[in-house]
């Protein structure tokens, strides 16, 4: 109950109402895995369609590509 009290009210409405912390944490873990899968898909599509278009320096393009690759590796 205390954990739900410390969460912002706009997020509370999306959370499952549970009696135990174990159930609550399991629900949060399941939601987090769904978000990870969604983020992986978004990052993969961004990486796949990225190309150098001369609107910025090559260094900036390489840094952005590397950052996306690191995020994917982490997930």
Plain-language structure description:
The chain has 75 residues and is an all-alpha fold. The protein has one domain (2-74). 72% of the residues lie in helices and 0% in strands. The chain has 4 helices and no strands. α3 runs antiparallel to α4 (58-74). The chain is elongated, with a radius of gyration of 18 Å. The protein starts with a helix and ends with a helix. The mean pLDDT is 79.
- The rounded distance between the terminal residues' Cα atoms is 30 Å
Q: Hey, roughly how much beta strand do the residues contain? A: under 5%
**Helicity range of the residues?**
over 70%
Radius of gyration: 18 Å
Number of self-contained structural domains: 1
Overall geometry comes to: elongated
Low-pLDDT residue spans = none
Major sheet: none
State mean pLDDT (0 to 100 scale).
79
The beta-strand count equals 0
Structural class: mainly alpha
What characteristics describe this protein?
75 residues, mainly alpha, elongated
Task: Briefly say what this structure is.
With 75 residues, the protein is mainly α.
Note the topology.
Elements: H1 2-5, H2 9-12, H3 21-49, H4 58-74
Helix pairs in contact: 3-4
């Amino acid at each position: 109950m205390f954990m739900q009290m410390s969460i912002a009210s706009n997020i509370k409405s999306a959370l499952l109402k549970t009696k135990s912390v174990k159930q609550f944490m399991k629900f949060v873990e399941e939601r987090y895995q769904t978000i990870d899968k969604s983020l992986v898909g978004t990052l993969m599509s961004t990486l796949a369609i990225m190309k150098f278009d001369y609107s910025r320096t090559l260094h900036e393009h390489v840094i952005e590509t590397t950052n996306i690759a690191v995020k994917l590796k982490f997930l």
